[in-house]
Structures
1.
Amino acid sequence: MKLQLFFALRYLFSHKDHNAINIISAICAGGICVATLALVCVLSGYNGFQQLIRGLYNSFDPDIKITLVEGKTFNVHDERIERVKSMDFVRVACDVMEENALIRSKERQTMVSVKGVSGDYADLTHVSEVMQAGAFVLREEEERYMVIGGALANQINAGLGFMSPLSLYAPKHDVKVNVANPEKAFSEKQLFLMGIYGTNQLEIDSKYAFVDISFARDLFGYGETDVTSLELALVEGADVAAAQRTIVETLGSDFLVQNKEEQHEGFYRMMKVEKWISFLILIFILLIAVFNVVGSLTMLILEKKADIATLRNLGATQGFVRQVFLLEGWLISVFGTLIGVTMGLLLCGLQQWFGIIKLNSGDEGGFVVDAYPICVKGSDVLLILLASLLIGLLISWFPTKYLGREDK
């Protein structure tokens, strides 16, 4: 194979009688270069946005979330739940009571997800790091308070230091609505606002109102041991997949155990689908660029007929000659791919370090970050290399397939 590679490299870089062959080869290599460069940049861009949004969700998402498969609430003192709480890899276990309610501030009102949490919730998540005003304090001795998102605060025109408390209206889960007196089926409670958080995610900032779990149980009419979910933070360095399997084995089929990605399964699935659709579109463009190899090799074979006859007279087999031209075509793909991937990695590195392409056009933009986020994954780069080189090899095989038939 070394001798075939020697001839292929010589044909690739040597002067041709017909300059069109060099031009076609250069166009082919350039097209492959641009396509692979685009693949590296686009896939790294999707990875960057996925990593960015995962970081935003991490402010509120626990490592593991446990809910019922059927039903809404379960007893937090269930023997299986107690065993999970005492597992070595569990750092913090937080009881949660979450239901929908109506929140009202003077004349403005909207639906909100009231999330009652136990006192160790701040240790479970990074919510304290995203506080825009006030503090994440839900209880001080006998006093109860509320923390809401910035988007929700703007929606109902609420803020810290207001003289009037916020009102919460919620249906009692164990009371049927009496048409004659429907108010008895609802409970109303009031709380002062203690803090406002902001994640720059409208879905989160307009959704939650955090309260103490005892207040939430009282508001919705649940018992002192009822919870809708149990949220867990694992010790640093713990294997989340292994911990999830252990918890599933302990709890059985009655409970749903979700990691961070599974808690937003629809969103992450959509991101992955978009990423791989873009990959397939760019691979199709790459395929079109590689097809130029057919024209380049065909013209080269016609030009080198005298050389082919000389090689045969010297004892070269038909397979040897085919391998020479197969390697010739494949080398065009190899050089184009390597240059494209290298340039793509260089551009991604420059974007990561210097933020050349900006998201915000002015000094104060509405985006979480100023520049497009980039995250290069080795698995993506390897996939691009394999796909491009394999396509180049297959395309190069076609013009050499009939080489013997034409020359006999």
2.
Amino acid sequence: MATGDARWIELRTKSLDVGGAFSFLQTPGAGGIDIFVGTTRLWTGAKKTVHLEYDCYRPMALKEIARLADAASEHWPVKRMCIHHRLGVVPLAEASILIGVSTPHRKEAFEACRFLIDMLKRQVPIWKRERYADGTKEWIGGPEPPQVTS
């Protein structure tokens, strides 16, 4: 679950628990909590999405997420943070990623949360495959998509 008392990093196939994350982030030293939740949207450009599928290289993904958490903690006065990413199939309107940060003030919470989501999307080996209503599918995101033909 957590890597130390101040962090909760998780890759999971089940639904993400926003309420549980909020409870974890609450601490007397934090006056600002920022939570970003990314969900599966119906439309990607002009294509209708059926669902998303996420895959990763788990050891490297966890290592990179921990590295990003370290970088955020070095730059902002983070009291607690959670970084949860869903793997497998994520249906429409369900959460695929949850990033939460608590800091003494809101500005730092916003900045650290934004940093974490932006860098995670760029650097962590988690890949997203969009499945569209027209039967097509497409790998998107992550450093390099896996070489899969199915």
3.
Amino acid sequence: MTNERKKDFTMRITQANKTEMIVILYEMVLAYLDDAEDTFEDRDAFKESIKKTRECMNELMNSLDYQFELSQMLFRLYVFIGKTLTASVAHHVREPLAGVRAIIEKLHSAYQEVSGQDHSESVMANTQTVYAGLTYGRRSLNENCYSVVNRGYFA
């Protein structure tokens, strides 16, 4: 994953509520699966991409609230995905990754729809607020980014 993509995920995480965090984690899984596909020929890089994918999956497992039946079903699905990723590394095959991608894309789509209905506050408190926009220059498109930082110190 590129550093720019990591910065984008980091900025989105600082502004996200609980449901948006799940959407971002699914997007990170998909990004690391892309990396795994791209680096398949290099065993070490492939293994590292799968490792990062599994770390995201572990974070998804840790976010489950087991008092709901849906969480228990998601847990079993996440365990299946983890086993599939492990088998992919052990046998150095990429075919199982397509199945994992299909499952994650469906879950991502569902959570993205739900996140549009979740208007709760951001999970992280006291983070900087980022305002960004595009303006038209004479011969170019300019990107502006303004950051308001408040780290708990009040004047």
